[in-house]
Design goal:
2 copies of one chain form a homodimer.
Chain A: E1 2-4, E2 7-8, H1 12-15, E3 17-18, H2 30-38, H3 63-74, E4 78-82, H4 85-96, E5 102-106, H5 111-119, E6 123-127, H6 137-151, E7 158-161, H7 173-182, E8 187-190, H8 202-205, E9 209-213, H9 214-217, E10 225-229, H10 231-237, H11 266-282, H12 286-301, E11 307-308, E12 318-322, H13 327-333, H14 339-347, E13 350-351, E14 360-364, H15 370-386
Parallel strand pairs in A: 3-13, 5-6, 7-8, 8-9
Antiparallel strand pairs in A: 1-2, 4-10, 9-10, 11-12, 12-14
């Protein structure tokens, strides 16, 4: 079935249980689906734009109210919407990082954090993870001292992922922020896997910025994201324009240069807004998500040789496993090689594991029902036994 | 009717003829509406992402093919999709503009061009328009010489809007680019009102970059846009990442820092792709659009006292008029003041004129049928005569 000339209508989330690591939290709610159709047209949210002519002041649809609610929900002072978390990173690095400045991130940081640093000419310095793949406050302090010793400079910014994309481990942002602040380093909390998934309280964490991803974790269309700041930092990152035309003497009011003027528009913004009531509710029930994850992971671990590489027991549904001594053994002699695994899953209505991957791979059970989690658990066990793998006694 | 909790379903383009200056070219096609539903979920286009793991290499949906077609259609060597034209500007200023560098734009330039310069610390220098509100090659040469004399520096970049947002006038980009290139200044063609509306041939224009807006002129959801470059400039703006993790020694393949890695995702991209066949076709029929504009503008000019401020006869459907000596006269004594005008238009099924505006205002007839244009023309004349304004003999 095609939705347009040459474009197949996507039905992945209608026809399958999808455990893709990055897609689980970004599935639209029914309200968001209706909203993207109603507000699909380009400048759809601008019908009632009035002075001071900035998108986040529009009352109909209730964009201004959404911004206030969003800031309160994150317990931060100000918030803006951005076209993806990465554009939030970019606004912050462009404000604080100059050529040659050292910037902290971690050995588990996402590539977009590196790119945001590269764009401003900063030097990326990784805080190493420990043996458990966790970033600690101690490691942060040691790294800051190392950077100071080597470069004579204090890092100008620290990116800390609350939950990293590699292991889905939870890192102690609160303790890390305390250390960073001891050196007056502003802390950017990367909540790409938490904002919209878990409760996030920016003030309690003691961070300067909270960045979240709409399309990764807030049931919104891409590209969308949020950038929240404390009052002090908002004055810096959300400063208003000061440029002027030399001939016309034009100025540009309260537009913000780091936001490139009006922020997230149209279908993406309204999708984010439409999903927000459900998103606020769903973060209160993460225990159910962990329970489903436990059910699936225990089934995987019941296959002899399977190891979990993420922290265990799990505190997040994004999970990394090592099946070199289990499912990959089958691949060695299977006529479809590693593709037998994703193929067998697909036959059971499951997608989201990289086709061909049987060594180290990730999955995310977020958003599954307990019945679907049961089906996932049974599917992994069945595929193991059908291919002659033994189960743990 | 609500599409989500607290959000009214928008029906502006279903219930009214909408002549809003910025909304006319961004209404979705039927195919785009279907596509945004099918690809509404966050990372929807990433189902079949394979090595080298960059969005513009994905074949299903046919994103890679779309990029090739788009570059060919604009007659440029490379193209990327971006979250709005402004993000294309930003990538270019971040590549070429350093603190204190003079940058050319025009006295009719859009504010987002100023913000892109401000973000990098550049100095905005406006090429003045002439008495007809046109930017000329001569004025460009004079301004370059002036900047060089005053700052001892050659401008590092020139933003030229083919059609400006204030008057909808067409400026001679080809001649201007020739002058700029005489001084080795790269030229950014701002096609926010042309790409998707008129045929655009980048090589023939002799520009270094073509930037277009999906949500303004390519029948796509917001935020979306395109950034095309010549081969030489592509190597600069689309350079690949060189940053490395100091602990992990990670590198990030062919991701591009100015693009912040993967480019436009999900519903916005697929909306742009779904509308593309119709957009390619519609640019061939701009004569019909001008004919509708002529019909409406002649009706407005038939009201004694109305003046057209845009170049006349019109070469674009975005038009600025002065009704101080016509419709504004009525507002002086009308109990609804200036709001009588937008109110009367709305009663006739017409929206898009700023409520209360009766002095200088803009409209855009793009996308109307000839029957709708006739209705618009009749509506303006009827409102004039009903309010005692006289018509030209």
């Amino acid at each position: 079935m095609r939705c347009a000339n040459g474009i197949e209508a996507r039905q992945v989330n209608e026809l399958f249980i999808n455990i893709d690591p990055i897609q689980a939290g970004g599935r639209l709610t029914a309200d968001a689906m209706k909203a993207v159709i109603a507000y699909g047209d380009g400048y759809s949210v601008c019908d009632n734009c009035r002075k001071p002519n900035r998108l986040d002041y529009i009352n109909k649809p209730p964009i201004a109210e959404f911004h206030r609610d969003l800031a309160a929900w994150l317990n931060m002072d100000s918030v803006r919407t951005v076209p993806g978390a990465r554009r939030g990173f970019q606004a912050i690095t462009n404000t604080y990082v100059r050529k040659g400045d050292p910037v902290l991130l971690t050995s588990l940081s996402h590539y977009t954090e590196f790119l945001a640093i590269e764009e401003t000419g900063g030097i990326a310095r990784e805080i190493p993870h420990d043996a458990d793949h966790k970033i600690t406050a101690d490691a942060t302090a040691i790294k800051i001292e190392e950077v100071m010793r080597e470069s004579g400079r204090v890092p100008v910014l620290a990116f800390i992922d609350h939950v990293d994309y590699q292991y889905g481990n939870i890192h102690d942002v609160k303790a890390i922020a305390k250390v960073a602040h001891h050196y007056d380093i502003p802390v950017l909390y990367n909540g790409a896997y938490t904002v919209g998934i878990l409760p996030v309280d920016g003030k309690d964490l003691g961070v300067d910025f909270v960045v979240g991803s709409g399309h990764k974790s807030m049931a919104a269309p891409a590209p969308s994201g949020v950038l929240a700041a404390t009052k002090e930092r908002a004055a810096e990152v959300f400063r208003t324009t000061a440029i002027e035309g030399d001939v016309t003497k034009r100025k540009f009011g309260i537009k913000e240069p780091e936001m490139m003027g009006c922020t997230l528009m149209g279908a993406t913004l309204v999708g984010l807004m439409a999903s927000f009531p459900l998103v606020k509710e769903r973060v209160k029930h993460f225990d159910r998500e962990l329970e489903n994850n436990r059910m699936v992971l225990e089934a995987l671990l019941s296959v002899s040789g399977t190891k979990v590489l993420s922290e265990y027991p799990r505190n997040h549904t994004l999970t990394r496993v090592d099946t070199i001594a289990s499912f990959d053994k089958v691949a060695e002699s299977h006529k479809k090689r590693g593709f037998y695994f994703s193929g067998a899953l697909e036959e059971k209505g499951i997608v989201g594991v990289i086709p061909g991957a049987t060594k180290v791979w990730k999955f995310n059970t977020y958003g599954t029902t307990s019945k679907q989690a049961r089906h996932l658990a049974d599917a992994f066990v069945t595929i193991a036994t059908e291919n002659g793998l033994s189960l743990m006694k």
